C-alpha cells in the first residue's frame, strides 16, 4: 500500500466547527481553542437558514426524483456562501482575524444519506471551496464518505469526540444527542472506543407535523404534544418501520423519517381529519421517547446510569420530562454539566475533526461494527 508521510503531532490552536444537521434549521458555529487536548469556547452561535435556502432544501430532500441538477449545484454554492458569511461573522464577534484560525471543519448539509445501498454514500452540500475563498481559512469537509467506502455507515461521527471530551476513565456514560435524528454514544469505561449509532427520529417528525399544522418551526417546549393524548395504535404503526427492528450500529435520516412516513401510518388507520393534531404530536413525541429508551434499555451488559443530553431536543421540556420518566433509574443531565453547551456539542465535534485532519490523526470509529481508524475529511486549502 502506498503510504503518505505521517505527521501525528496535534496541531493546537483556534478552529471553527460548522454543524448543519438533519433538522435543516440552520448552522451552529463554534469558535474554539484546542490546547493540550482541552477545549476553550471563544464564541458559539446558531444562524438560522434564510427562507430562500430552507425552502429549496425542503424541496430537494422531500423528493428523490430530480427535476433540475442546476438547482442542486446552485444550492450547494449558496449554502457555501452562507456558511462562509456565518464563519466570518463569528470571527468578528470573537475579535479575531481569519489568519488566527487554523482551519474550519464543515459538516455540510446532508441532502441524502444511503448507508445500505450496493454502493453506500452520504451526500452533503455547502461548497467547501467557497467557504475557503470567503473566509481565507482552510476548510475540511466530506467527513463521512471515506468511512462508508471502508464498510462503515459514515454516521454518527460525534461519538469519538464525545469520548475524548465528555468521557471519564472510571465512570461509564451515555451521551444522547437529540437533533433531527437522535443518536447515542456509549462511553464505556471498559472500552477504548465509543460505540454510537442512531436510534431513529429526534425532532424531525415532530417538527414536520407541527409545521404542517401551525406554520411554526417547532413545538416550543413540547406544548402541543403535552396537550394531546398518545394514540397507541398509531404508535404501533410507526414502530413497524424496518429501521427499528435492526440492531446497531445503524444510521438513518429524512430519507426514511419524513412527512410521507407520518401520513401513510395515519392513513392506514383511517381518515387523517379524524385525528387531532395534538394527539398525533403527542404520539410522535412518544415515538422519539420509545425508540431512544428501548435502545438504552437493551444495553444490559453496560449498566450505565449517567445520561448526558445535547442537541436542540434537550430544550423540549416535555420531551425531557417523558424521557426521564421512561428511563427510570437513570440520571439524566445536560452536557452543560460537563462544560459543553448542549447546542454546540456537534459544532465542537466538527472543529475537533478539523483539528484531527490538520494533524493527520486517524479517528477511531465503530460505525461498521468493527473498530477502525481513518483520517477523515478532505482539505480545501487557503492560498
Ligand atoms: N425550545 C425548544 N422546544 C422544543 N424544541 C426545540 C426547542 N429548541 C430547539 N428545539 C428543537 O431542536 C431542533 C434543532 O436541533 P439541532 O440540534 O439543531 O438539530 P440538527 O443537528 O438536526 O440541526 C429544532 O428543529 C427543534 O425541533
Ligand atoms: Mg441544527
Walk me through this protein's architecture.
This protein has a six-stranded mixed β-sheet. A five-stranded mixed β-sheet has the order 10-9-8-11-12. Strands 5-6 form a two-stranded antiparallel sheet. Helix 2 packs parallel to helix 3 and helix 6 (204-214) packs antiparallel against helix 11. It is globular. Strand 2 and strand 3 form a beta hairpin. With 383 residues, it is an alpha/beta fold. Helix content is 36%, strand content 22%. Bound molecules: adenosine-5'-diphosphate (ADP) and magnesium ion (MG). Adenosine-5'-diphosphate is lined by residues 21-23, 25, 179-180, 203, 207, 218-222, 311-313, 315-316, 346.
How are the SSEs ordered, and which strands pair?
Blueprint: E1 13-19, E2 26-35, E3 38-48, H1 51-61, H2 69-93, E4 101-106, E5 109-114, E6 121-125, H3 128-135, E7 139-141, H4 145-149, H5 158-166, E8 173-178, E9 181-187, E10 195-201, H6 204-214, H7 223-226, H8 232-239, H9 242-245, H10 259-267, H11 277-297, E11 306-310, H12 317-326, E12 331-334, H13 345-358, E13 363-365, E14 372-374, E15 378-380
Parallel strand pairs: 1-4, 4-7, 8-11, 11-12
Antiparallel strand pairs: 1-2, 2-3, 5-6, 7-15, 8-9, 9-10, 13-14
Helix pairs in contact: 1-2, 2-3, 5-13, 6-11, 8-11, 11-12
Magnesium ion binds at residues 21, 23, 25, 28.
